[in-house]
Write a structure and sequence with these properties.
Blueprint: E1 2-9, H1 17-26, E2 35-40, E3 43-49, E4 62-64, E5 73-81, H2 84-90, H3 104-112, E6 122-130, E7 135-140, E8 149-153, E9 156-160, H4 163-168, H5 178-187, E10 201-202, E11 207-212, E12 215-221, H6 235-253, E13 260-263, H7 268-280, E14 286-291, H8 301-310, E15 314-319, H9 322-335, H10 345-357, E16 362-364, H11 369-373, H12 377-383, H13 414-421, H14 429-455, E17 460-462, H15 468-475, H16 490-499, H17 516-522, H18 524-532, H19 535-540, H20 543-551, H21 558-577, H22 587-591
Parallel strand pairs: 13-14, 13-16, 14-15, 16-17
Antiparallel strand pairs: 1-3, 1-9, 2-3, 4-5, 5-6, 6-7, 7-11, 8-9, 8-10, 11-12
Helix pairs in contact: 6-7, 6-15, 6-16, 7-16, 9-10, 9-21, 10-14, 12-14, 17-21, 18-20
């Protein structure tokens, strides 16, 4: 896991050292173990390294010669290529210079050109400079597990693993895209290629870009999910096949030359990951669980403790307190330069800090299980006939009906609507809603949360449920093996019930809640006037309506609590990334700077 960045000038001149210095400095937290640089012609690349595989010879950039008459290919990458062992066996007639998992993509590009990513199994963003062709090639994994952003500027094309690095380089200014701002406030994340910062774009999941003379000349895209309906299979055969493909997925996700562990919520997905890790490891799995003492929300630690004990895990419990909320939230908002206002960022950030303190560099997590196995209640609701309560996904925004937004219209849903329109033919209704979530919600909320919160502490997050082989298997299961007896993730529950009975696989989905409403209610009188006068809030909302909302919080109205949380997160995010203000104080101190 690393940070990568680079620039291709538009005029053919050599990129400025100061730009590369700024990009690398801003990405230092992603790669504290080393820095690699590359300059050739109009192109410069940089990588900050978090050493996970091949600790001794895996420094980047990596190179391969193309003959005496052609300059070598150069690569920098962020992520893990899980099938690198198999690729090295498959790629014949070449000499590998390192044990790095990122060396095979260079040889694949040399042989297959810009479709090289079709052969990769992993999470990655890759930059390859091909000076012989005069082009830079960027590729991102199909689920968008690893981030990559770019901007087209007067100086040329610049890219980086994080938005804040592009801002630090001074090649683009931090203006807010109003449509994306309102989408964020209504959805808690934003969709598509455009980010909330004007002029900065995401390389889309599965996309490969070709850059020549500072401009994008070609795009191709790999899909994350198979564009086909379910395959017929019996439940017993599906269970047997799942056991094999899940073991393989978790096994390759454990490939590491450094210590690893996992995050255990006590839910179905993380419990299944723990059960399989326990099968595959001789030593106890190191598991971390967060909980909330003294609040009305369900505390998962007791259940997680029982699951961890049954699996023989070394279990560490972390309390996330009200004091943590007020102290850590500004730092979390600063880490999430591509904003997702998912309150699960709070415990994830603290869990990552604890994993780092425990000496871990790699953590496995259960993200993606709900999306590929059909776990959310909204999937079941979407499948019902309208008369029985069926409805489209996310038809109502979080701030609708509260009189807060200056511009309160329905354009915030345009990105989701586009994803719905672009679905392939032949999917079932369940597959269709799963595919929409995988297009935007998954990469731009859950996976962004995991990446930024962990990489802020130099920890790599891995998601075995989003392994391509496992996702292909799960997505093409018959609907009846995903949803049955009003329970989602049916097949996964059946497997877990046998693999780890104490996990209580057939209990209803408990969900995960952070008591942000309770905590904001406690200090509403102090918070209301401060939040109402924040520059970002005043641009988007009626400040008197925001103050009124905060003052009337009572901890029981979930809609008001969600709206208050979104506004608070956005106000802090705006201060950090648009105004460039310090985020080291607590919430009230940071808001009080205005």
């Amino acid at each position: 896991m690393c940070g990568i960045a680079g620039i291709v000038t538009g005029d053919g001149g050599r990129p400025a050292d100061t730009v590369l210095d700024a990009l690398g400095g801003a990405l230092g937290h992603r790669g504290p173990d080393g820095v690699g640089r590359y300059f050739l012609g109009d192109t410069a690349l940089i990588q900050t390294r978090l050493a996970i595989i091949d600790l001794e010879t895996g420094d980047q950039p990596l190179f391969i010669d193309q003959g005496t008459d052609r300059p070598p290919l150069a690569l920098v990458a962020n992520g893990e290529i899980y099938n690198f062992v198999e690729l090295k066996r498959r790629i014949t007639g070449v000499t590998f210079k390192t044990r790095s998992d990122c060396e095979p993509p260079l040889f694949l590009y040399d042989k297959h050109g810009i479709v090289f990513a079709e052969h990769l199994r992993g999470m990655y963003t890759i930059a390859i400079h091909d000076p012989g062709q005069g082009r830079l090639v960027l590729a991102r994994d199909p689920f968008g597990i690893k981030p990559l952003y770019y901007a087209l500027t007067e100086d040329g094309f610049v890219f980086a693993s994080e938005i804040q690095a592009l801002l630090a380089a001074g090649l683009t200014s931090p203006g807010v895209a109003e449509g994306k701002r309102d989408e964020l406030l209504q959805l808690q994340f934003t969709s598509g290629a455009e980010t909330p910062i004007e002029g900065i774009y995401r390389v889309l999941p599965g996309e490969t870009l070709v850059v020549e003379k500072g401009e994008i000349s070609e795009r191709i895209r790999l899909g994350a999910l198979p564009p086909a309906g379910p395959k017929p299979i019996s439940e017993s055969d599906a269970l047997e096949d799942f056991d094999a493909v899940f073991q393989d997925a978790v096994d390759v996700h454990q490939r590491s030359d450094v210590p690893y562990g996992m995050f255990l919520s006590g839910g179905i997905d993380s419990s299944a990951v723990l059960a399989m890790m326990a099968r595959l490891n001789d030593e106890p799995v190191r598991a971390f669980t967060a909980g909330f003492s003294g609040t009305a929300v369900r505390d998962e630690r007791e259940h997680a403790r029982a699951v961890a004990k049954a699996a023989g895990a070394e279990h560490r419990e972390i309390d996330f307190s009200e004091a943590d909320f007020w102290q850590l939230l500004p730092r979390v908002a600063a880490a999430l330069d591509d904003p997702c206002a998912d309150y699960a960022v709070l415990p994830t950030y603290k869990l990552a800090a604890e994993a780092h303190r425990a000496g871990l560099k790699v953590v496995l997590s259960g993200e993606g299980g709900d999306e590929i196995f059909g776990g959310y209640g909204r999937y079941r609701r979407a499948l019902r006939p309208w008369i029985l309560g069926g409805r489209m996904l996310r038809r109502e925004g979080a701030l609708n009906g509260l009189g807060l937004l200056r511009l309160d219209d329905e354009r915030w849903r345009d990105g989701l609507a586009e994803a719905e329109r672009n679905l392939p033919e032949g999917l079932t209704r369940l597959q269709a809603v799963q595919a929409v979530d995988c297009a935007d919600w998954l990469p731009n909320d859950l996976l962004t949360k995991l990446d930024r919160c962990l990489m802020a502490h130099g920890v790599e997050g891995r998601v075995p449920f989003l392994d391509p082989k496992l996702a292909d298997f799960a997505f093409r299961l018959p609907d009846r093996l995903k949803i049955k007896r009003n329970l989602g993730k049916w097949l996964l529950r059946k497997w877990l019930d046998k693999a780890l009975p104490v996990a209580d696989a057939f209990s209803g989905k408990r969900g995960f809640t952070v008591p942000v409403g309770e905590w904001m209610t406690e200090r509403a009188a102090e918070l209301a006037p401060l939040l109402g006068r924040q520059p970002g809030i005043r641009e988007a909302c009626h400040p008197e309506a925001v103050e009124g909302l905060i003052r009337t919080l009572d901890g029981r109205d979930k809609k008001k609590a969600q709206a208050a949380w979104l506004l608070l997160f956005y106000g802090l995010w705006y201060n950090a990334h648009v105004l460039g203000r310090d985020s080291s104080g607590d919430v009230l101190a940071c808001l009080g700077e205005n």
